[in-house]
Amino acid sequence: MTGVVVDRYLLKLGAVADAPAEDILALLRPCFESLTRD
Question: d(Cα 4, Cα 8) in Å, to the nearest integer?
Answer without folding.
Answer: 6
